[in-house]
């Protein structure tokens, strides 16, 4: 961002709201569909992202019945007919309900039509373990990477959130955006305990952030830490501590979960030769599995140590805070992993 | 109970011009010829894949699609050949698709279960039972938001009515008053399962009650009855007085798929329905009209047979995709 | 329209013995005290997690569960505290659960949205809207196959009626005649969305028509009306004449969850329903019976308040799980 | 198998049928629920597995409406109340419909109940690209591995199919069994073109095959080929060709997809130092990703080359046979991969 630009500090919830507002103003085919997103006096969706938007866009903020398979499917249908719907689930865990529509219809439609159909659909889903027990907590990214025809991204700060949502709206393909409950910066009754500051300065100008690029957020030479969403913030804080120990870590916000940006990741791996991936969610079968395998396939000659994955144990998310805290990888566990890989 | 015609009285045909009636006949014959021809090619082993066919159900596809405008859309299922032909896809583009050729309506990537052609108002068919229903509501939502006057006719079977997608998809259309006609082709079976084993309802159109919309059950082997019911439903939907749920009572004269011998269908039942074959019923009525005779109908059949046979010869030689095409058409 | 009581006439209470009536009252009071106490603890910051509460809906849980046998089962939702208490879970095991203690009914691993206790006839509550409905049918299928005489009462909200799970789950129960009572607590809102925005139906019990089962709408704030409707439905279900869909009209006096201020609820509507508070309604009627007076009711309330307060003191000190327990209880 | 045992050669469809029959006879709480599984004159499910069983078990072969979310959920409920249901989908692709019930309810129930609930549910799903177009073709294993609380297995021959199904029925946890359309050996109208012989000699005695053990099907010293289902058969045939070239491959049928049997796999990797994993389905995010990452984490000091994954390209399954054949990994591609890794 150039210094001269007028900027304003926004939370992710606010910057997503701004992105939606601007895109709806720009393009009359953009609309939102979801539960409790536009009820006057309501919440603007589960995490305030669409709060108040019904005032300006009464006809384009469609409050749905609780019917995720139905309205995701309807989003696909509307997209095929030239609209650009943004649909969301209140918690990522509910994505299993419309998953048939997402994988079997949205993602395959272009291919099985021989390239004659477009599905410009944006899907949004909040994830993260946040004191709600095991059905409102799991990390869902793993279930959607490598689905041919589907783009998957994760937004860790307000700047990216706005720019990526805009790119997604303008993209002609289905895009699934993951957001994290502890990063929204939702306020009032929807504030989250344990929230982490993910606000950014947002320029006044229209901008987009590409859907297929990782971001090097901290340069370093000895080890590459790959993560996204909440874990990216924990990784950044771990990197600060590591710097104090004299370990120089490069921290990359993976952002583009499917497909991955191996260009950016590769450049880092070639430099450091060591990779730690940090993921919230059970280790087995996570996004990190593909990242680790993909990195070792592509850059094995540069690797000084096997890729190390820091993740949750293979358990559902427990309710009780003492166990939930142990479930979620945290900076100390990241530190430990990095120290180990450095000694390798 | 809905009256099932064993005869279409010519009184019901007055008021329609002959061209229109002959077009209905021709379209039904085209579907029958196409399906019988494809079945032969498949059993003979020259055609790849699997097939789900609609012999005996021609009147539903033709009756409904005749009530649509060209720029209206349909959604269809694994059993979609009839819908596709009735909506205007050509036998050629469909045969090419079935033979996996690049000139197929989906470049050979779709196949029998995913026929479609956007420029003719048919999105690729959805082979997940019920999966096309939410899509149809969304398509109609787009029409409504864009203020076009298009509507969607959404085809599905009796079996689909127990899927969550049926319930959720129609719920959306109902609360938002969307311009869509839901067409349930009740052919008495979902695969091998008779409909009365999986619902307590006597009439599937009674499902309409739980959405607060209008439902109607019609003889699906009487093409005129279908056309008239569809025209009414289409009009209501287009005017914002829909959606409507139409149940069309019909019967599948062939296996559920491939080589299915239908041992689960009762002989009496089969006979009863075969006697009510939609093409025979309508053909008999037509020849009673002055100015139409059996020769004319035979001419139509011959013409179609010939067109089909020529199309097969071509399709079998159409170019197959090169291996590069395996990885194209993923992203727009 | 279903008559909504502003008054329970004592004539309707004759025929019930006082102990039974006082137990209904006590259970409703217990739920209210529990929920109000928990709300305070939560807002005060001493209790972790999030909460979905049922103040104002006590008569539905109590009326239905009073019609069940001990070995009957219930399924519940994210808003399950009332159901749990009415089915016999103790305030103690529930508070311990809410505080994440190992002595909680789910060892602290479940939390507010997954309360349950198999030995008391409640499977862990399902927090996916509608997700418990197919489960309930399966539970009753087991009862039927094992020829026990148990039934399941399946609680869900108005919002759940648009989910595919509702449609599919009840379809199974209907076609197999399963011993289950589907209890739709219509509190007029699904989260912040008013029910009339998401259905065309005036009565949600009309959904019963599309399953071919009996549906009934009852005043859900009149505990006696609920009890009587539930008893009838339970009996029918147990006898193999079910399933039944009960719609209980009620109102949530508190936020959807956590700190929700309910700005979307209209003031008049709130007032109307608050005037029909189920505990007040029933309490007023009880004190008109000879042999029951306000003192007695106050005694009940005091006893429960004290029990709750003692339980909180204990729960706050109950042992938390050790870190080893993170990876136990995955596989049986 | 001891030589003395009476054996009979059966297909997978037949041995599964036998397993179901024997388990239903043994235990009255076992029953089947699915579409078209018990219709007199019908097919015995999509691939003849339950053909004719309705004659002996009229009350325990429940033909369902087409309502996968519903009857999988009902299976869970029945299992919780002490029954042992076997539910199936006609094509694996439909598993997205009941996925909420599988992951959010079946798999988590024990954990979130604090260990008080059991869900002895068996689920069966056929997968494989077989000329039906993209919604009846995809490999679904990837979506279910690493789901805590769920066991996932894949059966490649009739002997295993029977023994594993029996183990699954007797297990107190939810078990998802993957089967392959080209391996069933379904006959008559349900025969499949391109089918591969997966018949086995089946002993007369009751036996089980554990749910957590891989099988070394061909011993070798130079390279370990890991695969399952159809790809296992292709791997065996590739190994024969390799032997002719003087390359000695060990072939393991992974079988236990979640959790993996790292004991068996590890022993092989320690011996050969080279691993090729063969998987039907898009490479990105497949089961092989976790296998590759897991192997490299555990056995990196034994590895002579990075793990090599042979899989499908990242595309939906095309209908046209020429492309479908190219989609599916085949013995030539396996050979090529092994030759390359041997030269590494
Ligand atoms: C979700 C789903 N479940 C199961 C199937 C397998 N299947 C294909 S067609 C069919 C029967 C459909 O019956 P119906 O809806 O009445 O249509 P019909 O075959 O009679 O045209 C089934 C079970 C499927 N394709 N999708
Ligand atoms: C499948 C699913 N979608 C959305 C939610 C989020 N959510 C939780 S409660 C709720 C409203 C439920 O309304 P209703 O069924 O009427 O129950 P009530 O809250 O009134 O008790 C919603 C949308 C959920 N838990 N599950
Ligand atoms: Mg049918
Ligand atoms: Mg409600």
How would you describe this protein?
- The complex is a heterotetramer, with 2 copies of chain A (344 residues) and 2 copies of chain B (332 residues).
- Chain A is of the alpha/beta class and 344 residues long.
- Chain A has 2 domains: 7-203, 3-Layer(aba) Sandwich (Rossmann fold), CATH 3.40.50.970; 215-342, 3-Layer(aba) Sandwich (Rossmann fold).
- Chain A is 34% helix and 19% strand.
- Chain A has helices spanning 12-26, 53-56, 68-80, 99-106, 109-112, 158-170, 229-244, 262-272, 287-299, 321-327, 331-343, and strands at 7-10, 30-34, 61-63, 84-88, 122-127, 151-154, 175-180, 200-203, 215-218, 223-227, 249-253, 256-258, 275-282, 308-312.
- Chain A has a 7-stranded mixed sheet with strand order 3-2-4-5-7-6-12, sandwiched between helices.
- Chain A is globular, with a radius of gyration of 20 Å.
- The two termini of chain A are 39 Å apart.
- In chain B, 40% of the residues lie in helices and 10% in strands.
- Chain B is α/β, with parallel strands linked by helices and 332 residues long.
- Chain B is built from 10 helices and 7 strands.
- Chains A and D meet through helix 4 and helix 9 of A and helix 4 and helix 8 of D.
- Bound molecules: thiamine diphosphate (TPP) (2 copies) and magnesium ion (2 copies).
- One thiamine diphosphate (TPP) sits between chains C (78-79, 127-129, 156-160, 187, 189-191, 256) and A (35, 66, 68, 90, 94, 97).
